[in-house]
Amino acid sequence: MARPVFGRASVTHLDRDRGLVEAARRDRQQFDALYRRYLAQVYNFAFYELGDHHAAEDATERTFLAALANLHRFEERARPAEGEGASTFRVWLFRIARNMIANERRDRRNHPAVAIDAASALPAAANVEAGVVASDEAAAAWRAVAKLPADRRRAVVLRFVEEMSTAEIAGILGKSEGAVRVLLHRALKSLGRELGR
Amino acid sequence: MPGRDTDVDALRTDRYLDSLLAAADRHANDVPADAAIDEPLRSAAARLRRDLVRVHPSFRFEERLAARLAGEAARTQLAPAAGAEGSIAAIPVTLDHEPDEDEGFRPLLIGGALTSAALSIAGAAYVAWRRARPSRLRAARTTRQRDRERSTAARAR
């Protein structure tokens, strides 16, 4: 019996960013459209992970520069399970961001003098950047999230701030969808205990 | 490794989150209820949806990075374009020494090679023509005659 071929031809739906990615591959100046689409999302992820406006900008900048330089390596691998609106480009971009942020956090551990209090940084920066009034409750929620183990914290930020699907988060964290669901479930249980005190 | 109960609970929580976030997208005030999910967990999810706000980078940062990316894009696109106007051709060259394994042919941009060759041929033809054609000026004829005598004397020595 012939084995099914899983190549580009078998992709059942298109990455929503396919047109933009192909345009950027033909003419790199067209990368600007992808940049504008995902800038805020990448910045948010970096900001929640690093808790500092300047560090988030640095990580965001490195992420987009790396994405532009390596765009020729990106392969579209949209799967039906990822849903109609899935973007494998977004998953790829966030994997780069995750690595950049991890490097930044590692540098901070090696240079503790520059570390800041992430929990207090979020409401302050949110006031400046987005005009959001920070409340004690919001600060408490962020502090509780910041205390979670790394994978749970990332999963929570990607699910609640970026509103990503479990499949996309699985792609970014390099885990199965089942593992991501369990991460989120356990994170919410521990946050429920922490915030209910 | 998570047990079966945890997997089922995690799946139920995931579906609850889907409906919670979809309600937020619709700006719906009603929060979906699922009696099978613990109250503290539902409360934590609602709280995170409300308190984990999105922040936006500054406009200044956005435009500065956009300009840097445009510069990088232009730089990486110009690099291959610098030699792209000609095609690569293998031009055999005669060597006085024993050639290395990969030295027999030298790739050149064909446009430049043809221009160079054309100039060389034209120059050689002009010199040959001038040598074969005696000048009408007496001074020039005298100068050439002396040059020929001098080189003949040098060869004889």
Using brief descriptors, characterize the structure shown.
heterodimer; A: 197 residues; mainly alpha; 0% strand; globular; B: 157 residues; 5 helices
Could you walk me through the main structural features you see in this protein, from its secondary elements to its overall organization?
The complex is a heterodimer of chains A (197) and B (157). Chain A has 197 residues and is mostly helical. In chain A, 66% of the residues lie in helices and 0% in strands. The longest helix of chain A has 23 residues, at 88-110. Chain A is globular. Chain B has helices at residues 4-25, 39-51, 59-81, 110-132, 138-156; strands spanning 88-92, 105-109. Chain B has a two-stranded antiparallel ribbon. Chain B is rod-shaped and about 120 Å long. At the A-B interface, helix 2, helix 3, helix 5, helix 6 and helix 7 of A face helix 1, helix 2 and helix 3 of B.
Overall mean confidence score, pLDDT of chain B: 71
Number of helices of chain A: 9
Percentage of residues in helical conformation of chain B: 55-70%
Strand content of chain A: under 5%
Tell me roughly what share of residues is in helical segments of chain A: 55-70%
Strand-and-helix sequence of chain B, N→C?
HHHEEHH
How many strands in all of chain A? 0
The separation of the N and C termini of chain B measures 101 Å
The greatest interface between two protein chains, and residues involved on each side, is: A-B, 52 and 40 residues
**How many angstroms does the end-to-end distance of chain A come to?**
60 Å
Mean pLDDT of chain A: 80
Order of helices and strands of chain A: HHHHHHHHH
Quaternary structure annotation? heterodimer
Structural class of chain B, please? mainly alpha
Class from helix and strand fractions of chain A: mainly alpha
Shape, per Cα inertia axes of chain B = rod-shaped
Largest sheet of chain B: 2 strands, antiparallel
Q: Looking across the biggest beta sheet of chain B, what order are the strands in? A: 1-2
